[in-house]
Fold these 4 entries.
Entry 1:
Amino acid sequence: MDKKKNSERILNSIDFGLSGDVPSLIVKIDGIDVLSIDEFKGDFIPTEAPTFLFNEYMWANSKEDNVFNGTMLIGMCSCGCHGCDDIVVKISTNSRTTKWVIMLDRNHKKKRAFFFSTEEYTYQINKLKDDYYSYSWETKEDKIRRICSEYIRTFKTKEGYNIEGLKIPAIWDDACENITGKICDTIEIYYYSDWEPMGKGYGRPYHNWKIKFDGKTLESAMKSLERFATKSLIKSDGEVSLRPTPFRLLYTKDKTVIEELLAQQEKKKQ
């Protein structure tokens, strides 16, 4: 493996790539795809690039949710479901070195540490973001999802809940059980309401609306969204975040956190 030396330890190299129309994230350490490393070989597929860049891994306990200090998803079961059988990385960064500890979520004995120059790691992360935001990977369907999501997030419900985003599912070919790449004619708009008891902790209930469009064009999707927003939503005030809400802000079992969240919630109502 190609490694760089410093005075304390041998450093690994890292680079990122994008593949497909989601796009998927390809991570290479010392030139080798992470999913090909012996400890992590199996029935895995890469996670989506936006999941790695912007989302906290859903089962993480960390209060951080970023690519410099946090627990992030880099691989998942070939079934495509997060939480089924994941490969996660715990990331910690100081001014000189960035440490990755890659592990199988359901078997922490299978783990391996890698160290990178923080300067080089930061460069590669910024390059990945530039590649992602170029949207050169986008299909027509991806473009419809992105532009519609950016638009609807500028609204909130009449009760004051911010719109979290929207989903336009892909069409499945039942004959071969594969995604066709095309999208269906239903847009699902969703948001989360106030904290309430849920399972063994507290969570924010999920709510949604479903609206129709022609399933083909951005123009049709936007007209449907505009009609719905004019009738059923109100414009958000202040800055609009395009990042999904981290899982830790949707569900928790931590009693101290629950008390704080409920107090904040009650204060907003006053």
Entry 2:
Amino acid sequence: MNRLGAETLIRNLPAATARPALIKQLVTANVAAYAYYSYASGAGKIRYRNFWTLQPESGPQCLFTFHFCHTNLAPLLFNVGLLATLGSHHVARHGVNHFAKIFGISAAGAALFAGYDMRTNAKQTQAGGLGVSAGFLTYYIMRDPSALKYLRFTPLSILAAMTFYGVYYDDKAVLGGLAAGYGAFLAAL
């Protein structure tokens, strides 16, 4: 037997759980939207940003679609990684309905904050689902921090980093997601 217990560590990581169909579909939708944006022509990228991302000229449908439409690789990797690991672990432990409820609450909080910011700040653009990821991660850290016990730092430092990111980069979707995730935790969902 290995003294470090590497086999046990790898077996217990959230990434080792099977991927439910909902998680696979969300990951596929995020990657497909980013691939379309990456390989689109100049006019296609402008159409994508106007119709799918949240900006002052976009329509009301963007309050829903901006969560899945990335224009940058870093948020895409963060969101897909979070969905594939903690999202799968959450579905395995609590079920698809509970995951959908927390995901929807986080999306609603992020959309509410980002939509209000669009009305007051005409220079702001929102793309990618960092708000949903922030809400889901906040809920998960507050409700079940044992899933993150293999990290070398405390889970609350992740929340502090996300709060700093939201304030420093004026990302109201992240702040809305954090508030919605914490609200879902307080409501004992």
Entry 3:
Amino acid sequence: MTFEELKEIVLREPFAPCRLHSAGGTTLDLTHRNGFFLTPGLVVAGTNPAPDGLTFGSWVFVSIDHVLEVTTPPLTVPASGK
């Protein structure tokens, strides 16, 4: 995947959560527009989100060269249905 391809996906309006699939077999979810940033060679994504979904406990760095695919993760609905 190239920087331009990934940029086009993550900057769509409205923002849609997506899942990055890496060459190593791991996945990384981008759940909020403010939860990651993108450079020409790197994706930096927040993990362990706080309940507000706007702050993160740690950050993961992934080389764009290692991103093979971007998919839409299945939506999860809480038991309350809200």
Entry 4:
Amino acid sequence: MNEVESDTYRTKDGKAFFSFSFFKEDEFYDINVTFAPSELDLINKTEFCVPSKKDGFLIIYEQKARDIFTAKLIAGAWAEKIWKECILN
């Protein structure tokens, strides 16, 4: 499993940044969060992610990506979802 690409995502409200690494595993991409705002406390957000064998956390999302474009879209949607969850709690 080799890192294919890294990317940074800024939430729509402009208040949070996330960094992701994308790894091709067989026909799908694994998406790791390598940076997230500290107030999210990802270690306790097991419904959203799990510790990765690589750096960071492997995101949990119902859709799988077969290409890097879709993987980046999923990463952005995941970031928005977890950020809204943080703001509402």
